[in-house]
Amino acid sequence: MFTLSTIHSALPFLSRIDAGVVTLHPEIKYCQVRYDIHSYEDALFNQFAIPSPEFLDKAPVKRRAEYLAARYAAKLLLEGEGCYGDVGCSLSRAPIWPTGFSGSISHTNNFAIASIVPCHAALALGIDIEMLGSKFIVKAAEIFTTPAEQALLASCNIVYETALLIAFSAKESLFKALYPEVKHSFGFKTSRICQLDMSAFRITFELMQTLTPTWTKGSFLYGYFSLQDSKVITLTTQHKI
């Protein structure tokens, strides 16, 4: 899913930074960082020139660390494109991207990832990262999948728990891709996974209800996934009509 172009270590807080492009859509850039919560300090916001929103003032260290790591990944991507604007934060906590760009951010445990694309590419974009090995994913399956989807995932040539996590993450990335246009929350059952292609690492979604004049019931959308060591990354992208 990704074509890696650079790898380097940074400060103790950021032990590794990977950057590159999405293989099938090289106009989409990504940056993944590994961070160490034990090396986090509030002073890093000033050091990295990342604005700290008010809601973080009383947030636990974990929340501040993951926010900083994800926004720093986004900052590196934007600066690589010659953009030095900040990624803001809306009342819903969704990122607000500088003029000329759209993107997506995600984080889990000690990893954060950001992706950006120029607005002129006319691509909806969502990304999500999750840790493998969750003991609760099977118990929670009814929340984000239907019995038919569960049967499909169980028939894939992959551990069922992993297939479920891919499904959960894929629906998260789908939500992030469509939300900027839909402008309201919608549930997991708004879409169904009708194919999980392990050879192409591709997910096919069908919308089960109309969200906008563009994203109508019966529309098919596509996402991709990558299994990396202890985590899964999903990305949903679709040309805007």
Task: Provide structural commentary.
With 241 residues, the protein is an alpha+beta fold. It folds into 2 domains: 2-121, Alpha-Beta Complex (Ribosomal Protein L22, Chain A); 128-239, 4'-phosphopantetheinyl transferase domain (Ribosomal Protein L22, Chain A, Alpha-Beta Complex). The protein has 5 helices and 12 strands. It has helices spanning 43-47, 61-80, 141-144, 147-154, 160-182; strands at 2-8, 14-22, 25-35, 88-89, 95-96, 101-108, 111-118, 123-131, 191-197, 202-207, 220-228, 231-239. A 5-stranded antiparallel β-sheet has the order 1-2-3-7-6, covered by helices on one side. A 5-stranded antiparallel β-sheet has the order 8-12-11-10-9. It has a two-stranded antiparallel sheet with strand order 4-5.
Question: What is this entry, summarized?
Answer:
This protein has 241 residues and is of the alpha+beta class. It has helices spanning 43-47, 61-80, 141-144, 147-154, 160-182; strands at 2-8, 14-22, 25-35, 88-89, 95-96, 101-108, 111-118, 123-131, 191-197, 202-207, 220-228, 231-239. Helix content is 25%, strand content 36%.
